Amino acid sequence: MRSAIGTRENVRVLEDFTSGGIRIEILEYQKLMGLSDVSMATQTYFMEKQNIRVRQIAIYLNNDRVTIEKGAMSYFQGNLEMVSGVTAGNALGRLVRGAVTGEHMAQPIYTGTGMLVLEPSFKHFLVMELDKGESIIVDDGMFYCAQGTVSMRAVSQRSISAAFGGGEGFFQQELTGPGLVVLESEVPMSEIDIIDLNNDTLKVDGNFAVLRSSTLQFTVERSAKTLMGSAVSGEGLVNVYRGTGQIWLAPTIKVYKTLEMARYTGVTGTNSMNMNTSRS
Hints:
Elements: E1 11-19, E2 22-29, H1 38-49, E3 55-68, E4 73-83, H2 91-101, E5 109-118, E6 124-130, E7 135-138, E8 143-147, E9 151-156, H3 160-164, E10 171-176, E11 179-185, E12 193-204, E13 209-213, E14 217-222, H4 227-233, E15 237-249, H5 252-265
Antiparallel strand pairs: 1-2, 2-3, 3-5, 3-8, 4-5, 6-11, 7-10, 7-13, 8-11, 9-10, 12-15, 13-15, 14-15
């Protein structure tokens, strides 16, 4: 039985998921043992204390297929074949769509039986299994890989205000099941709040909703009914989600962006770190 860990002693399986003929493991390196520079060793010591570790995705296929982000492959073993998904008939359409949406013209598809290991990353991985016909919309750049039964397409915002005011851009990616999906995230699953809406409304001050059900209506609106009310409240525009479905919120994204900005500007005191804006 193949194992992506192999002979390595400092790698462990964080989680594993199985659906049909595919099994996905999230691997984590406990330490980086090859450092020879003292300052770098000191830095990585504190990184590990804060759970900043190298992670990898390992995919085991049994007569199945998987679509991965372009450039994500590290190595593979077994009877696997890679196809681009681009043919003479769809090449021009994919090229035009990619120029408009920014999505890659071709995402590699690996099919067959074997083991596929993707590139290491300091980011976190979120894994979910979509039911047949279930669709989600994710932030640009989050897609990492998906079972071959999952279909993908770029979807546009319904209004200019939603694109610019919501901070989401004109296009996002829609993934439709059935199958497993792996997303690359700036925050771990432990900092994500999954909110279920049942014919309800959720208003969010900022673009830290990392995914949502495609059944939800997304708009950008004033936080209050009047301009004066929005000005007094200090909130301005908010992202609004209506209907029935699920939203994954990652509020700490604002914290990390604020810390990053503080590092660039030389701010060291938390009293000077302003997170009280929708774009902090």
